[in-house]
Amino acid sequence: MTIAGTHDGTLVAMSIAIAMFASYTALDLAGRIRASTGWIRRLWLSTAAVAMGGGIWAMHFVAMLAHSMPGMEVGYDVGLTMLSLLLAILVTGVAFAVMNRSEASGRRLAAAGLFMGLGVVVMHYMGMAAMRMTADLSYDRLWIGISVLIAIGAATTALWLASRNSRQIERAAAALVMGVAIAGMHFAGMRAAMFTGHSGAMEDGMASVGQTALALAVFAATFLILFLSLVAAMFDRRFASLAQREADALRKSEERFRSLYRGTPLPLHAFDQEGRIEQVSNTWLELMGYAREEVVGRPLINFLTEESARRFRQQDWPELIAKDVLDPREYRAVTKAGAFLDVVSAARVERDDEGAFIHVLGGLTDVTERKRAEEALRQAQKIEAIGQLTGGVAHDFNNLLAVVVGNLDLLRRRLPDDPRTRRLVESALEGAQRGAALTQRLLAFARRQDLRPEAVDVAQLVGGMADLLQRSIGPMVRVETRFPPELPPARVDAHQLEMAILNLAVNARDAMPEGGLLEIGATAEQLGEGNAAGLLPGPYLRVVLTDHGAGMDEATLARATEPFFTTKGVGKGTGLGLSMVHGLAAQSGGRLLIRSQPGAGTTVSLYLPATITPRASVGPTPALLADVGEPRRVLVVDDDPLVLANTADLLEDMGHSVRRASSGPDALDQLARDAEIDLVVTDQLMPGMTGSQLARRIRTAAPEIQVLIVSGFAELEESEAGNYPMLRKPFDREALAQALFRLRHPATVVPFRRVGSA
């Protein structure tokens, strides 16, 4: 006969509570699965499977214990019962694994839900089969179908909820629904079961005390396991939150570092262990001319010249990896535009606490301009050394020419009236005077003093340096001069103007390597307000040099007057020529203008203030000076015996009484012994005491004694130049006579003034 069973309400409530708690725990643990990776992920997957599968089984087993039949004692097959537990855990774990393997989809959810639902149904009926009682068990197919549908629906819903990120209140609501659904599946399955008792059945109606105790034990164990799982998930979530917070802080710190790194004004870079660029600063990109995506991931050697790249790869990089530091090394870098840069790079390997490689930090320092300046300085030092050497040689040569000119002049006066002999002496004297003119230019090249502007006849100056110009620019360049008559003089330092014209001529020669025409001319111009030259209104002399050479483009023309800028090769130019001309024009109150086009030649216009010539007071004509003046007692001072003898001979020839001294101290001794000396003619450059120092001593001790200083050129300091009369070497008898005349009769000179000035 069919036996109708009853359920213990307390145990039924306990089973439903297990289902809800297990559902909540499984949903909570599913979140840890998504937040984990590696073996931690697999551990949380197993824990969720145990929580969900074991919870479903515990709910099923407690609900089975809640069911009792009158007069019948029920036992359970331990093997089948344990197998049903393992089956529940297994199918739940597989379903969770399928859903967490990749992005969840509807098809994957349906398959996993079907698999888990059927597995739970099998677990349920395997548990029913494990019952041992004095009755036969059969099933109602309709209720079996209902239980299967409920199981599949509940499993699919559970998997869908587990794949979502939900808040705690959502998980609690879902657990409530899931618990009721799981319980509903179980009790639908129990509704399908029909029990037919055997004879001799017991007459007792309620669940035994043993069943109740077993149910309580399973309930307590299940809740303890689920509670510990929740506690573990809570701690893991807390640790993960702290780790995430630290990771966020680290990420923000790295972002700030990356932002600072990229925004630093220094050209910095970072390499990986293979030497590939990981990070570069914006300044680095600006220096090299690249975009960031064109640089990151490429090795540094891609941006170096072949020689520098080979040295970096074969020597410097192995040294850096071995020593963790690389001292500053020089390389040649190539920008995106193809320009070459001289750079200095240093680097350091960054390692973590365990010594593992992190990256290489380094940077580039552009020293291109510094190296150019150093090269220009070396060139300038060479020029200075040449100037000093030239000055020394020219000074000695000037002394020799003074002897030659003086003696030739004396010889010419003592020659018989023989035209041929006189012509030979005149030729020798002219050659010596040309040598003296060349020596003056060499001394002008070597001098170091401020500008001394004076009224200069530019046409006469250019004509006088024609030989020097032709020798400097060579026979391939033809020089034509165009100077109109009645050209006003320019207010400028004559010798600096010579150097400026010479520099401009040499530049023109370099612009015409195959030869050509150089035109030199000048015009007088009256500039008004707002003139193109940007000068003050007034009269100016415009000196123009025009060549028909290669010309300059706009970029070169814009930098043409910069100090040390040159387009010539190494050793072929200092970059100081045009800057010197520019400085001369500015200091003289004028302006340098350059007009040029590639292939059309260059025109240089040098604007200089125009002046009128100074007017000196009228004195005796040079022809009469040789015999003017009474004989004087003269002390001649010079450290060069030849010059000393020549000067003394010229003075004696003029009728003066001469005594000789070889140095400044010697002259002072003679002056102390002989009070009758009324004139001292002294050389300027002498060892121990210069001529100006001797003159100061004489002026202090005997101010009535006149002093005439004989100098090559620019040997007096600026503060002393106007204090003493001076005679320039080399000189002849006539020049010496003029100097002595000016000592007796000082001339009044009207200073020059600008044309048109008041």
From TrEMBL:
InterPro entries: CheY-like_superfamily (IPR011006), HATPase_C_sf (IPR036890), HATPase_dom (IPR003594), His_kinase_dom (IPR005467), HisK_dim/P_dom (IPR003661), HisK_dim/P_sf (IPR036097), MHYT_dom (IPR005330), PAC (IPR001610). It catalyses: ATP + protein L-histidine = ADP + protein N-phospho-L-histidine. Gene3D superfamilies: 1.10.287.130, 3.40.50.2300, Histidine kinase-like ATPase, C-terminal domain (3.30.565.10), PAS domain (3.30.450.20). The chain crosses the membrane at residues 12-31, 43-66, 78-98, 110-130, 142-161, 173-193, 213-235. Its EC number is 2.7.13.3. Residues 392-612 form the Histidine kinase domain. GO terms for cellular component: membrane. The modification 4-aspartylphosphate is found at residue 683. One of its GO terms (molecular function) is phosphorelay sensor kinase activity. Residues 7-196 form the MHYT domain. Residues 253-324 form the PAS domain. Residues 327-379 form the PAC domain. Residues 633-744 form the Response regulatory domain. Keywords: Kinase, Membrane, Phosphoprotein, Transferase, Transmembrane, Transmembrane helix. This is histidine kinase. It comes from Sphingomonas lenta. The lineage of its organism: Bacteria, Pseudomonadati, Pseudomonadota, Alphaproteobacteria, Sphingomonadales.
